[in-house]
Design brief:
Order of helices and strands: HEEHHEH
Shape: elongated
Number of strands: 3
Largest sheet: 3 strands, antiparallel
Number of domains: 1
Number of helices: 4
Low-confidence stretches: none
Radius of gyration: 20 Å
Structural class: alpha+beta
């Protein structure tokens, strides 16, 4: 259900921008710092691999498949938060893939200062990747601490 909401929100905002703005047009929301604008991105994050449709489709597909496989592994291990984050990342990737396959580009529209222009899917991908990295660090630290405690406890006997 979360995946459907993310994809729908992203696709609806992209459609609204394409239907109401000309390519390159921008609407200031908070001066020039926050604007809604219409940009066509033929690359991946930060326009990397711009114009190379094969690489962008391959990388996005790999991201989606990797997230699904890792989520299944984490679900089987009894974890809940990591699979949720992976679902959000995969959903963003799927929504951007819809654009790539149907339009030949990804519609971006959120511009903050001099930062790259992005979309709703990108927000979920980036935010959840950061949260996932933090989760993995915490989980790894906990595993290391538990291993140290068990080794210390075992050496006292």
């Amino acid at each position: 259900m979360i995946a459907v909401i993310i994809i729908a929100a992203d696709q609806l905002t992209k459609y609204a921008v394409r239907a109401n703005l000309e390519l390159g047009e921008a609407i200031p929301v908070l001066g020039n710092w926050f604007r809604i604008c219409y940009v066509q991105n033929t690359g991946t994050a930060f326009s990397m691999f711009e114009g190379n449709r094969f690489i962008t489709i391959f990388l996005t597909s790999a991201l989606i498949i990797g997230c699904v496989v890792y989520a299944i592994t984490e679900i089987r291990a009894g974890h809940k938060l990591v699979p949720l984050l992976l679902c959000c990342i995969a959903s963003g990737g799927i929504s951007n893939m819809i654009d790539r396959l149907t339009l030949g580009f990804v519609t971006d529209m959120i511009s903050c200062g001099k930062f790259a222009v992005f979309n709703v899917a990108d927000m979920f991908i980036t935010t959840c990747c950061i949260l996932l990295m933090l989760m993995v660090l915490v989980m790894y630290k906990n595993e290391v601490d538990e291993k140290k405690a068990s080794e210390k406890g075992g050496s006292d006997e």
